[in-house]
Write a structure and sequence with these properties.
Elements lengths: L2 H5 L3 H4 L4 H4 L15 H22 L11 H8 L1 H4 L1 E2 L12 E4 L4 E4 L4 H10 L8 H8 L4 H11 L3 E3 L3 H6 L1 H7 L5 E8 L18 E5 L4 H11 L3 E6 L7 H7 L4 E4 L8 H5 L3 E4 L5 H4 L11 E6 L14 H8 L1 H4 L13 H24 L1 E8 H10 L19 E3 L2 E3 L30
Parallel strand pairs: 6-7, 6-9, 7-8, 9-10, 10-11
Antiparallel strand pairs: 1-13, 2-3, 3-4, 5-11, 12-13
Length: 446
Amino acid sequence: MNTHARLVQDYEAGIGVTASRISPAPDPGSNLAATLPVWALAAGSIAALATAANRMRTARGLDPVAHRLDPARITAAFCSERLLRIGGRMPTPFAELSGFFPTFDGWVRTHANYSHHRARLFATLGLPDSAPLDLAVAQMAMIRASDLEEQAAAHGAIAVRVRTEEEWAASPQGQAAAAGPLVAITDRPDRGATGLPAGAAPLQPLRGVRVLDLTRVIAGPVATRALALLGAEVLRVDPPQLPEISWQFADTCQGKRSTLVDLRTHGIDDLIAAADVLITGYRPGALERAGVRAATRPGLIHGRVSAWGEAGPWGERRGFDSIVQAASGISIVEGAPAVPGALPAQALDHASGYLLAAGVIDALVARSDDGVGRDVRVALARTASWLLDAPDRTPRHPKPAMPSAAHVVRHGQVVTAPPVLAEYPDYASPAPAYGADHPAWPLPTH
């Protein structure tokens, strides 16, 4: 098969795999019960990952693995924050200023889990950071939703107007988000070495592949965690001035190493030069402005995840799964115009992460033939458009069940969901101490 044929994988068609084709188990999507076909999205994204892993095995001369796609594993992984316990305590997924709030003429959804986003939202409202929550809520109630959305964007805060799916589809940003493939793989002009590292094993087809992880929150870390599960050496880099939310790190950084680098004062060209893959989750252009240059490594596979896509009027805006749900109409579909709702999991994040991992694997396989550097892109809003366009809605559905506590792994004080692929009983290692490693690749072992 030639390089072009390898890369033209129809992810959008493949993700349409239904629960009945995955497993005969009863009610496999009960944790993900929703009006929209969330189970199909979840199962399809994992099927895409498993299929890409087998394409890598074939490229490395290994026999394919007959992956058993287990509904319990898949739904547990997509609801992992509901299974997570640290010292016996369940985390609070959203801060008090993250959620739906009424405005003068509708609703907005905000995201202020990070302290800097909280401060920017207060600045948007003309309030000091020390103002009480009730005052912020009252201030939002006096502003038109569209005005608050624009003011938040101008301040670098995160708040969007809750729209219907028809409003989103008619908007320039909605049309841009729905355009293009679900997983976009594009060639760059740079070219490096061909071939793949030695030492692969059936359950570690990515052994020897180095992945530099510059992502946070859920989608990007899920992608790099999947690559680590398949044997890749993953080094996550975080900025020391913006600490990560501890429970998110514990839940998505298994199998990786962790280091801290202030990109404003220290470059990472040497790390990129020795990497096979770079995964980034910053807004388009942000890392380039900080001096991060993918061209340092000819033939690099650069995986990129964004909220809104890299084109269109919202390409530069910040966003998260819950925010994309609200802007795209999903919140109205899962609730009502009078009372918005939400999906039973951060499904846009998780699915986009697994799809990004699959695309990166396919790009690595193609590079083994031609050495060409490639960009692999996914966007939460593009994944949302697939979900909104998919058939088989279920307006009358049961309340989503809690994932079973029988499907967990334990690492000391941390209890979380096991790997999404049933062949793996656990991750190679628990999430490391935050920032515990040096910003360097380990010396190769012989």
